[in-house]
Amino acid sequence: MEKKRKAILTIFAIVAVMAIGLWGVDVEQGYMMVSEITTSPQDHVGQKVSTMGLVKNGTLSISPEMVSFTLTDAEDEEQEIYIEYTADLPANLVEGNSVSLTGTMISESKIEADQIVIGCPSKYSE
User: Fold this and answer.
1) How far apart are CA 54 and CA 44, in angstroms?
2) Residue 52's pLDDT band (cuts 50, 70, 90)
3) Strand 98-107 vs strand 48-55: parallel, antiparallel, or unpaired?
């Protein structure tokens, strides 16, 4: 009986930790590809957007006030959008890395990001 009680308490604790960890996360809003945003940018201006892509080589600019770069679509590098980010610099933000971000699309070609998550580098990449 004691093992069963411990198992139930453990499951409850895991569920509680998951609920707290996901608090405030909008699970309805998925990440769009850059090409999805740039195909119809007028539909997203003024809206909160979540997107992912690659930091374009030669575009990363880091200053004390802001980080900016061009984000390209992972499948179509012709599709790109300019990103500005003013919060703390994410670790491992380098050109060529994949990133996911959330922010407000302030014009048809620019997003002001408020959250950036760096993709895990692949151990198989060169």
Assistant:
1) 20
2) very high
3) antiparallel
8 A C-beta contact, residue 86 and residue 64:
no
3-state secondary structure of 25: coil
How many Cβ atoms from other residues are within 10 Å of residue 110's Cβ?
16
- CA separation for the pair 13, 59 (Å, rounded): 45
How far apart, in Å, do the first and last CA atoms of the chain sit? Answer: 54
| H or E element in which residue 3 lies | helix 2-21
Residue where the block lists tokens 């003013």:
86
> What confidence tens digit (pLDDT) does each residue in 54-107 have?
999 999 999 989 999 999 998 888 999 999 999 888 778 899 989 999 999 999
Higher pLDDT residue, 63 or 9?
A: 63
User: If you search the block for the tokens 């308490």, which residue do you land on?
Assistant: 9
Helix/strand/coil for 63: coil
Rounded-to-10 torsion of CA 41, 92, 95, 79: -20
